[in-house]
Amino acid sequence: MAEQIAQDDRLQRRLTNRHVQLIAIGGAIGTGLFMGSGEAISAAGPGVLLVYAIIGGVLFLVMRALGELLLSDLEYKSFADVAHDLIGPWAGFFTGWTYYVCWLVTAIAEVIAITGYARFWWEDLPLWVAPVVTVAILLGLNLTTVRAFGEIEFWFSIIKIVAIIALVVVGIVLVVIGFASPNGAHASVTNLWRDGGMFPNGFHGFTGAFQIAVFAFVGTELIGTAAAEAKDPEVTLPKAINAIPVRIVIFYLGALAAIMSVTPWREVDSGSSPFVAMFSLAGLGVAAGVVNFVVLTAAASSANSGIYSTSRMLFGLSWAGHAPRIFRKLTARSVPGPALLATCAALLTSIPLLYMSESIMTAFLTVTTMASVLFIFVWCIIIVSYLRFRVLRPDWHAMSTFRLPGGWVSAWGTLAFFLFVVWTLIQADKTREAVAVSPIWLAALGVAWWLRSRRTARKETGDESSAAVEEM
């Protein structure tokens, strides 16, 4: 980076191993799994298991590449710093601001979701109450210390883990006892292949599931943001990344297999949470309330992650000269106070959105989809940074003890996969619009970078002229 951060202005490494481990789990488990998996099942049938496995495997490779980069230089605060250093200042600018907007819009969507979940219990609750209370609580937690963020994410993740494990256990019990649903369908693992096989909707249905499932993995890269504040990153970061495949098998594949074993895939309602349906089938009368609480905490966890990641990214952008200097400031507790306040103020835009008409809400959902599309851009930048790392610093790579498995082949294969995912997004009307809108954001960033470069060039020219006059 052009300007080094003074010791007193550095983020402090106060996240312990358990914090980083649970932040990694929380980042990989979101509302996309709890609420969106039904639509993915309807699209691909049992083949959705392979869809989630492929996406999870590719993102594991992305995280391995990121881990190698971050551990090569512990001065990196985020992958925006990595892109700045290895690709160029423009890449750091594009990556930082894109990631900031991705998480900001995602967090706004989660605050709106929390409002809907809260009205499950309090139907007459004014729309502005839940956003204000949510933002105030999360801001207060994040302003204390980074350890407070780690603690709240730890417990949010515990709730999600318990809910998923409970779902898997209930599914196993129903299969063992041969449970029969009211429509006469029996719980059995044979439900995974006896109705049209693993790919009942053919290639089109299989690829269509990628459009939905890829969004469930947004947040996996949060490990890279937390690395700058993790104790012993050489130990905690590899542990968190290497555990990703196990988490995918248990929390994604295990849960989906349990759901489709109990309920034949054609009977899974794409418009509601299959988690609620599973617990309801088991005769748990409070299922709706329990799952509503779980998805509320999942949304709160995602919003909390959004506040954390955007404030750290804004802090890093400021030190790179890509954002106002005010965001360089840390509080006495070593957290980026101005960046946190700016982010939380932006989250309150959820209030006017809540009061808008349905057409505005539809447009807002398109924006959140666009944010998810831009996450793919961030993941690609991580891989391109790795490729540059291999070219520019082969000696550093040779000394690395935590490498990307497969090296060059894995990196290029990952980029090819993301091109495939973008192709699948173009195939559906709902996501095609988001793909079409995304270049507008990148074009706006290009204009902003051009203006910033011209301003910087004029300033440097002016400084050189002043120096020349003083020497005369």
Give me the secondary-structure topology.
Layout (H helix, E strand, L loop, with lengths): L16 H12 L2 H14 L3 H25 L6 H8 L2 H33 L7 H16 L1 H31 L25 H12 L8 H5 L6 H10 L1 H19 L11 H8 L5 H33 L17 H11 L2 H6 L2 H35 L1 H6 L7 H21 L1 H43 L1
Helix pairs in contact: 1-7, 1-10, 2-8, 3-8, 3-10, 3-11, 3-16, 3-18, 4-5, 4-16, 5-6, 5-13, 5-16, 5-19, 6-7, 6-13, 6-14, 7-11, 7-13, 8-18, 12-13, 13-14, 16-18, 16-19, 18-19
Keywords:
472 residues, Amino acid/polyamine transporter I
Cα distance spanning the termini: 33 Å
CATH superfamily placement: Amino acid/polyamine transporter I
Oligomer: single chain
Characterize the biggest β-sheet.
Answer: none
User: Do you know the CATH topology?
Assistant: Amino acid/polyamine transporter I
Give the domain tally.
1
**Helix count from the secondary structure assignment:** 19
Name the overall outline. Answer: globular
Q: Which structural class do you get from the secondary structure elements?
A: mainly alpha
Strand percentage? under 5%
The CATH architecture is: Up-down Bundle
CATH classification, class level: Mainly Alpha
Task: Give the rounded overall mean pLDDT.
Answer: 79
Low-confidence stretches: 1-8
Number of β-strand runs: 0
Rounded radius of gyration (Å): 23 Å
Q: Which percent bin holds the helix content?
A: over 70%
